[in-house]
Structure formats: structure tokens, C-alpha cells
């Protein structure tokens, strides 16, 4: 199965085999939609996956699957005063932002729920984009006082700690502004 984007930005879902109502025994049948809308930005992140809840449909009727993002997108903006007191724009642009020990994967269950693998953790490295440093990972909460991110810039590392609990919400573009 695959999802392809045409020249107008419209997505069309195609299957490897045809699906016919005659082949579905249940009435109503339950349908779950999942698709990767954007592949992972690098090997440390997860794909931007869209999922729907299980949706019942009587035979020979239309199906509307409302897809929601399973992952949280986080955009990091690094700022610093220029000159002797801070970093140059070139140093900021070449900095690395790492989210240490974060959950990074999950799967969709039979109800269409995205279940986070609570045991699977590793460092997630943000990808430098025109919008800032971007990371995509499952919903999670960083507790007050814990390390939210590590910024490596000009040969130095800076641990950024949470001044309150921070929850990275799925479907949201969570913004993290870091002043160095």
C-alpha cells in the first residue's frame, strides 16, 4: 500500500490488491487508516505518522477516516547576542540539538491508537531546516529539572533543563526557544 502526492499536492491512497465490499464479512466493518505523511528527518527520529480511530461502516457506504498526527513535532530556535557576549549566526546555524534519552517509536493497535514503546529510548537529533532545528518523536513529558535538550555549539555542550513540566503533544508544533 502507498500514498502518492500529485502535482497539486493532493494525496491518493493506492493498495497492492483491490478491496471489495464482497470480500468483507463483517457488517458493519471496522476500518483504521494509517499513513506516513513525511518520512523521518534522520535515523534518530520517527516518521510523521497519521492514524485514525477504528471507524465502523456498513457495507456499500462511504467511509470517512479522520487522520491525526501520532507524533509531536518540535521546532527549536537558537538565539544568542552577537559579538563578544554570544555566538555568531554561523555558529548557531551549525549547532546540534539533541533530545537525550527520549522515546522514539510506537505502533498502531487494532483500535487505531498509537501505542508508544515506553522501553525504547535513545538520543534524538534535531534536523536543521529553514524553520529551525526540527525533531519528530512520540508524545512524552519531561519533568521539571530534567534535561530537555543538549545544545552542542562551538565545541561546547549546554544542558537545557526544564523549569517546569513540559509535555510534547502529538499533532502540535511544539516550539522551544533557547537563548544561549
Short description:
By secondary structure, the protein is mainly beta. It has one helix at residues 89-93, and strands at 2-5, 11-14, 29-31, 34-38, 48-51, 55-57, 68-69, 71-79, 96-103, 106-108, 114-116, 121-125, 127-129, 132-138, 140-142, 147-153, 156-161, 166-168, 173-179.
Layout of strands and helices, then pairs:
Blueprint: E1 2-5, E2 11-14, E3 29-31, E4 34-38, E5 48-51, E6 55-57, E7 68-69, E8 71-79, H1 89-93, E9 96-103, E10 106-108, E11 114-116, E12 121-125, E13 127-129, E14 132-138, E15 140-142, E16 147-153, E17 156-161, E18 166-168, E19 173-179
Parallel strand pairs: 8-19
Antiparallel strand pairs: 1-2, 3-6, 4-5, 5-7, 8-14, 9-12, 9-16, 10-11, 13-14, 15-18, 16-17
- End-to-end gap: 45 Å
Mean pLDDT: 86
Helical proportion, percent range: under 10%
Low-confidence stretches: none
- What overall form do the CA principal axes indicate? elongated
Q: Indicate the structural class.
A: mainly beta
Major sheet size, sense and barrel closure: 4 strands, mixed
Rg over alpha carbons = 20 Å
Secondary-structure element order, N to C: EEEEEEEEHEEEEEEEEEEE
Widest sheet: strand ordering: 13-14-8-19
| Count of distinct strands | 19
In terms of DSSP E residues, the strand content is over 45%
**SS field, number of helical segments:** 1
What descriptive keywords fit this protein?
1 helix, single chain, four-stranded antiparallel sheet, mainly beta, elongated, four-stranded mixed sheet, 180 residues
Amino acid at each position: 500500500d502507498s500514498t502518492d502526492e500529485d502535482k497539486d499536492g493532493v494525496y491518493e491512497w493506492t493498495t497492492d490488491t483491490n478491496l471489495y465490499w464482497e470480500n468483507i464479512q463483517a457488517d458493519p466493518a471496522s476500518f483504521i487508516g494509517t499513513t506516513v505523511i513525511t518520512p523521518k528527518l534522520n535515523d534518530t527520529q520517527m516518521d510523521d505518522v497519521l492514524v485514525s480511530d477504528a471507524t465502523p461502516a456498513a457495507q456499500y457506504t462511504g467511509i470517512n477516516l479522520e487522520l491525526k498526527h501520532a507524533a509531536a513535532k518540535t521546532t527549536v530556535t537558537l538565539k544568542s547576542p552577537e559579538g563578544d557576549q554570544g555566538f555568531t549566526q554561523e555558529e548557531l546555524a551549525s549547532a546540534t540539538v539533541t533530545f537525550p534519552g527520549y522515546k522514539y517509536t510506537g505502533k498502531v493497535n487494532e483500535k487505531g491508537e498509537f501505542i508508544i514503546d515506553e522501553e525504547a529510548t535513545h538520543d534524538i537529533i534535531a534536523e536543521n531546516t529553514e524553520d529551525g532545528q526540527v525533531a519528530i518523536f512520540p508524545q512524552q513529558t519531561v519533568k521539571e529539572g530534567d534535561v530537555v535538550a543538549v545544545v552542542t555549539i562551538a565545541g561546547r555542550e549546554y544542558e537545557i533543563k526544564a523549569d517546569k513540566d513540559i509535555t510534547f503533544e502529538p499533532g502540535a508544533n511544539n516550539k522551544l526557544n533557547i537563548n544561549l
